[in-house]
Design brief:
The protein is built from 20 helices and 14 strands. By secondary structure, it is α/β, with parallel strands linked by helices.
């Protein structure tokens, strides 16, 4: 992994401006790459790209391997000859934030039409599709069937809302359903081909501009996912499809009662029996899609917070050991020694977690919004998140998708803390965001990454997510069309050159 000094921007695909209700892999994505190149930004960090379900969290995907169909660009499908001009002229209503429901209502019929047109065509693209279906069958077959059944039943909760025979993957029931839903299953396979083709084109364009893509692997999978349905033997899920425990974290900076995520936990002894096959394939796919991968909740590879069945908060969980180095050794043996991984090492971090991170040479994360604190009325100048304390083998952020924007964060501080921040950054109230960006630029951290909202100096109303909540304001921020030409990129470029981070 290249560890030269670089800067990056964090923004999810869905946040790009779009006429179809949700950001996609079309023109705006290419415009955003051009904007990054203008600012000498060498890293574009995205959130997980999987298809989302209820709540539209990218960390609760219907598949650990599939792409989100809503990110497929209708305009690109038109240019490829699979949609008519009247299709792409249909627009979603203008909204301040992403309306996923409206986007699905508009786009899914369009995408299905394009898939049917593709299946009726012949030629080289069909050969490429057939090859894709064959190579990815090990996850694609189950995913496509899972989505088709979900559409038919109207519910992805296979463990409670599906007929018992389908829930328990009875062979005869699956074969019968496969025949009944053959056309819908094929459509979902085509949509995954569309997604993969459009995404890889975008990645190639970014790479040509000198920009590397950082992806994101959630450590856990969603309970209502095709993976949980098809790979339950690898999970703490009983024979009836019910979870034996749930994932989460103990009380922390984000929540006084901890975070009860509700994901199924891994049955690690079963993974060991397979030589960690599932994890190896998961990393393989992600290294194919991304130049670098951020592993969310890295500490879970050392130990997971296991919350007993029936608990309504995460307070009464306990730490249970994970395979840690054993797993990464298996991944290295299969995929090579150089694993381009960023370890999301936030939260309750123990010496054992730090040893696992450092032994593997993974850079950890430093969040500037966590840097400012008092101890008995004195500034905590040794806080490891303060810019002057950032280690070279680290990736420093003003904030992440789980934080408020830096402007929103500062506005909510009490007067004493605001005074501390102003003194540290030597600035006025109105300069805090860019002074913090500059301080991180000057730090020893090898990479510094800023949410696009901070580059645009936006307030709390532009926040991406509030952990432990579920609502329409989460995951729905989107940038304006005018921001694809923001003059803030010139300032980012100036600092990039000033502090030796102008990689491209």
């Amino acid at each position: 992994m290249d560890k030269t000094r670089k800067i990056g921007v964090l923004m999810h695909i869905t946040s790009l401006p779009s006429e179809y209700g949700v950001g996609d892999l079309g023109e705006s994505a290419y415009g955003f790459v051009d904007l990054l190149a203008e600012g000498k930004v060498a890293l574009w960090q995205m959130l997980p790209l999987g298809p989302t379900g209820y709540g539209d969290s990218p960390y609760a995907s219907r598949s650990a391997f599939a792409g989100n169909e809503l990110m497929i660009s209708p305009r690109s499908l038109y240019l490829d000859g699979y949609l008519d001009v009247e299709d792409v002229l249909r627009k979603a209503p203008e909204t301040e934030r992403v309306d996923y429901g409206a986007a699905r209502e508009l786009k899914m019929p369009m995408l299905r039409k394009a898939a049917k047109a593709f299946l009726a065509a012949k030629g080289a693209e069909r050969k490429a599709y057939d090859r894709f279906v064959e190579e990815e069958a090990w996850w694609l077959d189950d995913y496509a069937m899972f989505q088709a059944i979900t559409d038919e039943i109207g519910d992805s909760r296979w463990f409670s809302m599906w007929p018992e025979a389908l829930r328990n993957r009875d062979g005869k029931a699956l074969e019968k359903k496969r025949k009944e839903l053959a056309k819908e299953i094929e459509i979902y396979k085509v949509l995954q081909f569309f997604f993969r083709r459009q995404y890889m084109r975008l990645k190639a364009y970014a790479n040509e501009k000198g920009i590397s893509i950082i992806g994101d692997i959630p450590i856990f999978i969603a309970p209502d996912s095709s993976d949980a349905w098809s790979e339950r033997k690898l999970l703490l899920i009983d024979e009836d499809g019910q979870q034996e425990a749930s994932s989460g974290v103990p009380p922390d900076a984000f929540s006084a009662t901890g975070q009860l995520w509700g994901n199924p936990l891994y049955r690690w002894e079963e993974h060991r029996k397979t030589g960690f096959r599932w994890w190896i394939e998961r990393f393989r796919e992600n290294f194919r899609l991304f130049d670098i991968v951020r592993v969310d909740h890295f500490r879970g590879f050392e130990a997971c917070w296991v919350v007993p069945k029936g608990e309504v908060t995460a307070m009464n969980g306990k730490w249970v050991k994970s395979p840690g180095q054993e797993l990464f050794d298996a991944v290295r043996k299969a995929l090579g020694d150089d694993l381009p991984i960023i370890a999301e090492d936030l939260g309750v971090i123990t010496p054992e977690v730090e040893e696992l991170r450092d032994r593997n040479g993974f850079p950890g994360m430093k969040i500037a919004q966590f840097a400012f604190a008092f101890d008995n009325g004195r500034w905590q100048t040794g806080n490891p998140y303060l810019p002057h304390n950032c280690q070279s083998l680290s990736v420093a952020y003003t904030g992440t998708h789980d934080n408020n924007t830096t402007r929103g964060w500062y506005d909510e501080l009490d007067d004493g803390m605001k005074d501390y921040v102003r003194r540290y950054l030597e600035c006025s109230d109105g300069e805090v965001v860019w002074k913090m960006i500059r301080a991180l630029m000057a730090s020893h951290a090898m990479w510094v990454i800023f949410p696009m909202q901070d580059v645009l100096s936006l307030g709390a109303d532009a926040r991406m997510n509030v952990p432990s909540t579920c609502g329409s304001s989460n995951w729905s921020w989107k940038m304006g069309k005018e921001d694809l030409h923001t003059p803030a990129m010139a300032t980012l470029r100036y600092y990039s050159e000033l502090y030796g981070r102008a990689e491209i």
